[in-house]
Amino acid sequence: xxxxxxxxxxxxxxxxxxxxxxxxxxxxxxxxxxxxxxxxxxxxxxxxxxxxxxxxxxxxxxxxxxxxxxxxxxxxxxxxxxxxxxxxxxxxxxxxxxxxxxxxxxxxxxxxxxxxxxxxxxxxxxxxxxxxxxxxxxxxxxxxxxxxxxxxxxxxxxxxxxxxxxxxxxxxxxxxxxxxxxxxxxxxxxxxxxxxxxxxxxxxxxxxxxxxxxxxxxxxxxxxxxxxxxxxxxxxxxxxxxxxxxxxxxxxxxxxxxxxxxxxxxxxxxxxxxxxxxxxxxxxxxxxxxxxxxxxxxxxxxxxxxxxxxxxxxxxxxxxxxxxxxxxxxxxxxxxxxxxxxxxxxxxxxxxxxxxxxxxxxxxxxxxxxxxxxxxxxxxxxxxxxxxxxxxxxxxxxxxxxxxxxxxxxxxxxxxxxxxxxxxxxxxxxxxxxxxxxxxxxxxxxxxxxxxxxxxxxxxxxxxxxxxxxxxxxxxxxxxxxxxxxxxxxxxxxxxxxxxxxxxxxxxxxxxxxxxxxxxxxxxxxxxxxxxxxxx
Length: 536
Description:
Blueprint: H1 6-11, E1 24-30, E2 45-50, E3 56-61, E4 65-71, H2 80-85, E5 96-103, E6 108-110, E7 115-117, E8 123-126, E9 134-139, E10 144-158, H3 164-169, E11 215-231, E12 241-244, E13 250-254, E14 258-263, E15 266-275, E16 288-293, E17 300-305, E18 310-314, E19 326-328, H4 341-345, E20 349-352, E21 358-362, E22 366-371, E23 380-383, H5 392-397, E24 407-409, E25 415-419, E26 424-429, E27 437-441, E28 468-469, E29 493-495, E30 501-506, E31 509-515, H6 525-529
Parallel strand pairs: 23-28
Antiparallel strand pairs: 1-31, 2-3, 3-4, 4-5, 6-7, 8-9, 9-10, 10-11, 12-13, 13-14, 14-15, 16-17, 17-18, 18-19, 20-21, 21-22, 22-23, 24-25, 25-26, 26-27, 29-30, 30-31
Function: The B regulatory subunit may modulate substrate selectivity and catalytic activity, and may also direct the localization of the catalytic enzyme to a particular subcellular compartment.
GO cellular component, one term: protein phosphatase type 2A complex
Family: Belongs to the phosphatase 2A regulatory subunit B family.
């Protein structure tokens, strides 16, 4: 909030060139299904989230499970020769492997209100790590859980005098960790064993040839997941968002009408900071659709509504933030309203940029970029589903018009991405003068659906406060020339925080796409730090 105006930011920008348009390639897939294989409903991915370091990736599914993946190319156990052969670690794209999974939520039944609570994971958020343990929040429609995932070493004991076969018969507790009877030690043990655990213990003639002391032969490591806290009974409506605060101590949870503030250490108490519920429910005109904390200011958060507006609030103003600091909305042109206007204007997701200066919002038709210092309108509008406008009646009939697509910033803030139908998603460049607008497919050949982008003049904030981009419009057909498949929708995706790598969910499959070889991952220091950045 305490920064220069939009015009001041633009004055520094003329010398900065937009980054080169990226080429993308397939990297990895987890949960790949065979041709003709039917997808089980419980296996469909419903949430994706990278941690801040980019070394861990979490997914949640409709079956209430959370699956964790760890990055393997950044591990410290590689030799110097391996590192030198790869030129540098900066040139490598992230590679992940399966780490562990656990059942986060189970189906429940609310007997008081007489309805079933699904186990589906709505959101996952990583928390700060401590002592090598991973911490994360996961939520379904009603209950938030705080999980700790840590490594535990399992020791195995062997090289004992006890004969495993005899020990088992005599009920010895050491039988589960014994070695074979014929094990020889370096001090000349003959390997003979004696039944000295029987009731009439016999000492062999001459005594024992040697004393075989127990030794630890291995220390296997296993991951253990444990639910630390459960935050329940605070929401009357379905939870649609959770977001960590930058202070590392608190987080918010949002449902259709309320936003609650929690302390991670206290699970039986929360504070209601936003309440949109009217005295008479017949007067209800809008609901909360998404909420997120500012990345650096612990007192600021933003939430979006079904009317297409975004409210920025300051927790320092009052305990109950019914009033807002700023309101961001774009008014429809007069005479353009229709039955579908409010439905397609509803914002399904918002994200803050890393610098906290910009907010990205996704509604059904477009992706919009907002500057928190300029509430007159979005600084850029990217058309995603404009080609579907003639089909809104059909989309309303099959409920596709209510699909909630997510959006994300790239780690450097120079690009944005969002999903569409037929497992397609779009990537746009944000900087002034950038013509990057790419349509990709979540498959092993992501570039086959790329449309040709028309040349368009670059626009700067000093001359135009709003710019409309139409370069990556999906032309109503998929990569094979067929009509868009509205049953295969790419709702969830996440951009790696430091690399040009995107994780996206195609039904039960998790795909990772990375920049193709030959395209530099490094950008100008001014672009990385945000100095002189001008968005269109």
